[in-house]
Write a structure and sequence with these properties.
heterodimer; A: 340 residues; alpha/beta; Rossmann fold; 2 domains; 19 strands; globular; B: alpha+beta; D-amino Acid Aminotransferase, Chain A, domain 1; 7-stranded mixed β-sheet; 7-stranded antiparallel β-sheet
Chain lengths: 340, 531
């Protein structure tokens, strides 16, 4: 597909003269979602869902989230030059979108990050048939068949019951994972107050302003030590085993991440209770989704693309690795800057 | 299998002893018989299988997954059983899942299954299990199951469930076999206490308290007996009609590593339970602990080890003789029984622990300080009328260690601790000066992670954070700016460190903020003083 090309700034749609999730400041950026490796500051014009724009304003300030902003609801079609463009839900975090582009009878979909698993805090992923599908491959290995999130929540809640004198502190990213975890805990029947690290509260407030109820949330930083005993505390991954956590009574260190699926990764993080919950598509979801789009060609932006492209090849689908540097693994660094 | 797998997973990630205990108690009270019995056997290390080889696991996985994808995955995960467990996918995922096998079912099936049938059965089991149970199953059948809880901890959990002392469990333990039906019946009040009869069971030992903050002038020297405290490992030698055993003081059976001791016991044929110190004794001389360590490191010794590092026993006490329980008798009487047993049998490899004559405790203190020979850690004080009481009662027995040796070393690296200390840099690698080609450099000689107060830990943690120069994963290299006075029990030559020396039981005695790093000790001076 010649009208989408890879430039140093990022993926470029030539006939519309815009970039998707560019890595450097550009004249026109279409942003899939608010994570800091996809939504970067300093663009002139930013097109994104209203939720993503709100997230960008919260994280980088009004002045750096695009000189002008164009809010686009899911399914609203606009024309940019000869390109017809609309956004479809990606199921990754609040406001996350796939960018659908049509040009001279061809349709390309850039999915950004996405998942197919249950998430009460955002619109579910929508399969958009297309000729070219651009996918991530964070969990692009067949060992990543992630468990049902409800099972993981039940495991966490069981542990909370088993050790009522300790405090469970769960490491989670400020945008998306945190709110999903809260919503899943509420769905799992946990209605106690949740104690939050200061870096997590503003994003939760934003979610609530978009009509996603998260229940009784309180500041862990302002709380008395004794109040949190037996409770659940949420904090950024960088804080759970560091000095911040000393304010917690006898903490059980937990981390909510898809990487927790592999023991060595969990061990390396010094985690006592791995909670395998991911906001990325697992191996089965990647393959199913690529197939469901009917695309003849799949581009892989980042992650473990070798295995995915190999497996697609076995299904007679042509894959190409873009190796977009700068899109990070779901790891601490990705979130620290924006949420500190 | 699911409960067992969940327990395994949780134990593997939990450093805290209390948490492990709580998890074990929950498991033992919830899991059915005989599954829990086999889980207990797994913790005791007595559940070992080699029903499946890695090649079989790989072949099974290949039936379900492309070899290229498998190789990539294995490269990433790094563990064969885990890779297969995670990658496995049921052939017909839509059908109802068959029930996962129980632990006992797996054990019983494998015991009688012809080898050729193993792959078919394992395939069925894998289909029935979730990823975490698959992992436990594959580790179990390949004989590589590791449980993050010791036998002792499992027994402590059982004892807490039964509201008895862990030592009561020990007393019957070695007469029992998996799946331990009578044991569970007893702790749940549904059966009598199992009778060890003539089995060579472990008898919980009597331990001494350290002599600290104790006023010796209040003691009447005539009521006390003194012995050297030998630097080996405390052992219990058991000989009964059903066999001989060598136990450590934590009830670990180490007979296989010390066939020389076992053979001596067999030859004697005397039915006794003896308490003593296991040492390496060469021509009547006690060898440094490092030599014993080499023997302890091996499951079974080589012929040359048996020749060059022969085991010897210093006898402290006698607990049973010909079925008679001597433990309630006073120390002096037991000592007489021990001496008469010893002179009657004149057992090879064994020597009586010498009773040290003394008039007063000042004399004894001098003896203690001058005893710098290999193999002596200090003195033991035992009350003449003390019965042999399991555990560590305060009063009847004291260990009076020599003053520790000390060296002023410089902090070089720091690492975070575990559990409660996971947010603190609490493990410190320290080193001494060495001069090479006219240049002064630091070489590490050891690592310490105890000895400091909470306040000192806070200071050290902050100091490390403020003086970090480099990071290697979890390890921080720090500027050479802080001297620690390190206390240790002994020094020895070692190939493990670049410096060629190693310390026994190093701990932080003091933080020497007052001392310039240039004035810390040198390796040359250290070797002159202690080696």
């Amino acid at each position: 597909m010649e009208w989408l090309e890879l430039k140093p700034e990022g993926l470029f749609c030539a006939p519309g003269a815009f970039y998707i999730d560019p890595l450097q400041p550009v004249a026109h950026a279409v942003i899939t979602h608010g994570h800091s490796d996809h939504a970067r500051p300093g663009h002139d014009l930013v097109t994104a869902t209203p939720e993503t724009l709100a997230i960008m304003r919260l994280r980088m300030g009004e002045d750096r989230a695009g000189q002008s902003q164009q809010a686009l609801g899911y399914g609203d079609v606009i024309s940019i030059g000869e390109v017809r463009l609309w956004l479809a839900p990606a199921g990754h975090v609040l406001g996350s979108a796939q960018v659908v582009m049509e040009y001279r009878g061809q349709r390309a979909v850039v999915s950004g990050d996405y998942k197919r698993a249950l998430d009460p805090t955002c619109e579910p992923f929508e399969v958009v048939p297309c000729d070219l599908f651009v996918t991530e491959a964070t969990f692009g290995l067949p060992v990543f068949r992630l468990p049902d999130p409800a099972h993981e929540i039940a495991k966490l809640l069981h542990d909370v019951c088993l050790f009522p004198e300790r405090t469970h502190v769960v490491g989670c990213y400020a945008l998306g994972k945190c709110q999903r975890l809260i919503a899943l805990l509420r769905d799992g029947g946990y209605h106690e107050p949740l104690w939050l690290h200061g870096a997590l509260l503003p994003m939760c407030n934003l979610y609530e302003s978009f009509g996603i109820p998260l229940g009784d949330l309180r500041s862990a930083t302002a709380a008395e030590k004794g109040e949190m005993r037996g409770g659940i505390v949420l904090a950024p991954p960088s804080a759970i085993a560091d000095r911040w956590a000393r304010r917690l009574p006898d903490p059980v260190v937990c981390l909510a991440s898809g990487w927790m699926h592999v023991r060595q990764r969990a061990k390396a993080h010094g985690v006592e209770l791995p909670v395998v919950i991911s906001d990325h598509a697992d191996w089965d979801a990647l393959l199913e989704t690529c197939q469901a789009t009917g695309a003849k060609e799949i581009w892989v932006t980042h992650g473990r693309e070798d295995a995915l492209i190999y497996a697609l090849g076995k299904m007679q689908i042509r894959g190409r690795a873009l190796r977009l540097l700068g899109y990070e693994e779901e790891d601490e660094q990705a979130e620290q800057g924006a949420s500190a | 299998m699911i409960e067992f797998a969940t327990l395994l997973e949780r134990l593997a990630f939990t450093p805290s002893r209390n948490m492990k205990l709580a998890l074990l108690k929950e498991y033992f009270s919830m899991a059915p018989d005989p599954d829990r019995g086999y889980a207990l056997a797994a913790m005791a290390g007595s559940l070992s299988f080699a029903a499946a080889k890695p090649a079989m696991l790989r072949a099974l996985a290949m039936e379900r997954i492309d070899p290229e994808l498998f190789t990539w995955s294995y490269d990433y995960v790094g563990d064969l059983a885990e890779t297969v467990a995670l990658i496995w996918r049921r052939e017909t995922p839509d059908q109802d899942t068959p029930a996962a096998p129980g632990l006992a079912e797996v054990v019983h099936t494998l015991e009688r299954l012809p080898k050729t049938d193993v792959p078919d059965v394992v395939r069925e089991w894998l289909d029935a299990c979730d990823a975490s149970s698959r992992y436990a199953l594959l580790k179990l059948i390949t004989g590589s199951l590791r449980v993050g809880a010791s036998a002792r901890l499992a027994k402590t959990a059982l004892a807490e469930l039964a509201s008895v002392a862990a030592d009561d469990i020990e007393e019957v333990w070695h007469g029992l076999e998996a799946p331990y039906g009578p044991l569970f019946a007893w702790i749940e009040g549904k059966g009598p206490k199992p009778d060890a009869k003539d089995a060579p069971v472990f008898r919980p030992p009597m331990l001494a308290q350290p002599l600290e903050n104790v006023d010796l002038t209040a003691f009447n020297p005539g009521e006390w007996r003194a012995e050297w405290k030998w630097d080996g490992i405390r052992v219990q030698l058991v000989s009964t009609p059903q066999g001989e055993r060598v136990y450590t003081r934590t009830a670990e059976d180490i007979g296989k590593a010390f066939p020389d001791v076992l053979a001596t016991m067999q030859d004697l044929g005397s039915r006794v339970v003896l308490d003593g110190e296991l040492l390496v004794v060469q021509g009547g001389i006690v060898a440094p602990f490092a030599e014993l360590q080499q023997r302890l490191n091996r499951k079974s010794p080589t012929a040359s080890m048996l020749r060059d590092m022969p085991a010897g026993i210093r006898l402290y006490d006698i607990l049973f003789e010909d079925g008679e329980d001597l433990r309630s008798l006073p120390f002096d009487i037991r000592r007489q029984r021990l001496e008469s047993w010893f002179s009657r049998l004149n057992p090879p490899r064994m020597a009586l622990s010498e009773l040290i004559a003394f008039q007063n405790f000042d004399d004894l203190a001098k003896l203690r300080e001058n005893a710098r020979s290999e193999g002596i850690e200090g003195l033991m004080l035992k009350k003449a009328d003390s019965p042999y009481v399991p555990g560590r009662p305060r009063g009847p027995w004291w260990k009076w260690k020599r003053e520790p040796l000390t060296v002023d070393a410089i902090v070089m690296y720091a690492q975070r601790g575990h559990g409660k200390r996971s947010s603190f840099y609490s493990d410190y690698t320290f080193g001494l000066w060495r001069t090479v080609d006219g240049e002064r450099e630091l070489v590490p000689i050891g690592k310490a992670y105890s000895g400091f107060t909470d306040e000192e830990l806070k200071f050290l943690d902050k100091w490390v954070r403020d003086h970090t120069t480099k990071r290697f994963g979890p390890v921080r290299e720090v500027a050479h700016g802080l001297v620690l006075e390190i206390a240790f029990d002994a020094a020895q030559y070692s190939k493990r460190h670049k410096s060629g020396v190693a310390l026994r039981f190093p701990r932080v005695a003091r933080i020497r903020r007052d001392k310039p790093v240039e004035d810390a000790d040198t390796l040359e001076a250290f070797i002159r003083a202690f080696l």
